[in-house]
Amino acid sequence: MLNREFTAEALNQKWVSDFTQVSYGAYGQYSARVSVVLDLYGGFALAHNISETETSAAAIQTFQRAFNSQGNVHPLIHTDRGSAYTSKSFNNYMVNHDVQRSMSRPGTPYDNAVMERWWNDFKLRWMDKHPTPTTLKELRKLVSAGVDYFNYMYRPEKNNDLTPYEYRNEAIVSGFTA
Q1: Does the pLDDT at position 1 exceed 90?
Q2: Phi/psi at 148 (nearest 5 deg)?
Q3: The model scores a pTM over 0.90
Q4: Which of 146, 143, 150 lies closest to 165, judged by CA?
Q5: Distance of CA 56 to CAs 80, 84, 91, Å?
Q6: Contacts within 8 Å (CB) and 24+ apart, 24-30
Q7: Fewest Cβ atoms closer than 10 Å to its Cβ: which of 93, 116, 136, 175?
């Protein structure tokens, strides 16, 4: 349903989500999964979550945080076809929030390219610039700081050199909310 239309005209109109793997430990021997919900209006990360594995419970927890932060909104939600997003519990959760669902076509990562690009930037511009965390607690702190960096400091050209937070604020002041 998203059909690679990676722009939004208003806040909370279109959200995308995905998981990525990150490493920690003295030798990077442990891994965890990070999920993010991204609002396509300005690329603001509404919520993130770290879990041991990619599960429907972890996906639901991430979206709970996003909905809690945004209130009563009903965006188009786009994800890939990972098992966390195709599970009955996740889809029941989405039905309860009265959202429209969109999923990438099988074997077509380009259908979620904006989220894949966000992960690429997150890893290259943040995770790779810092020492590998040795504990899960350090990993949580590093990931949270990275999400904050991309929301409040990073200035992408597509946002007219505004941070995603500044871009959202302009929308709120101008009344561009869904």
Answers
A1: no
A2: -60, -40
A3: yes
A4: 150
A5: 13, 4, 9
A6: 24/132, 24/133, 24/134, 24/135, 24/136, 24/138, 24/139, 25/132, 25/134, 26/134, 28/132, 30/136
A7: 175
Q: What is the pLDDT of residues 57-75, one digit of tens each?
A: 999 999 999 999 999 999 9
Average predicted confidence (pLDDT) for the chain: 93
For the chain, what's the residue count? 178
Give the pLDDT confidence of 77-115 residue by residue, as tens digits.
999 899 999 999 999 999 999 999 988 888 888 888 899
Q: What is the largest CA-CA distance in the chain?
A: 49
CA 146 → CA 109, 113, 140, distances in Å? 24, 20, 10
Residue of 137, 167, 45 lying closest to 18 (CA atoms) = 45
